[in-house]
Structures are given as structure tokens and as C-alpha cells.
Amino acid sequence: MRLASQRAVVVFSMSSCCMCHTIKRLFCELGVNPAIHELDEDPNGKDMGCNPPVPAVFIGGRLVGSTDMVMSLHLGSKLVPLLRDAGALWL
């Protein structure tokens, strides 16, 4: 939880996961610069676990969820306002 609250957007990911790549790409295209923690490259990654499954996305220090929840918010036009409120977007 400490890591999840250090930045406006935090993504816990696995470098080989295609869904993780999709979420990281979405944030990049939206102009968001998330803190990304690759659990398979971090020596403490196994201690952090994968529950919930990766990608685990935190916005404003709160768990938003995995790919399905992030994409649902995006398709419902609710992701950008959430990112704006968290200070991840300026415009």
C-alpha cells in the first residue's frame, strides 16, 4: 500500500504480460506517467504477490483493479476524470 500511494497512478505488472503492456500503453497514450513496478524484475516481487492479478492499477492511492476494470472505466468515459482528480492529468 505504501508503494501504491507514492504516485498518482501506480501499476504493478509482469514484464511478460500482454494485458499489463496494454494498460501501460493506454496510460502512455493518455499522457499519464505511472509508477510501474515489474514484479518479475523486482527482487521483492514475489513477496508482493499477484493477488489481485496483474496488472493491479492504483489511482490516487486506491485500487482500481485489473485490465477489465480500467478498460470499463475508459470506455465509459470515467477514466480521464478519475486521472484528473488524482492529479495524473493536467488538462
UniProtKB/TrEMBL annotation:
Superkingdom of the source species: Eukaryota
Gene3D superfamilies: Glutaredoxin
Name of the protein in its database record: Glutaredoxin
Keywords carried by this UniProt record: Cytoplasm, Redox-active center
Localization, UniProt: Cytoplasm
PROSITE patterns assigned: GLUTAREDOXIN_2
Domain Glutaredoxin: 9-64
Family classification: Belongs to the glutaredoxin family. CC-type subfamily.
GO cellular component, one term: cytoplasm
Matching SUPFAM superfamilies: Thioredoxin-like (SSF52833)
Organism annotation: Musa troglodytarum
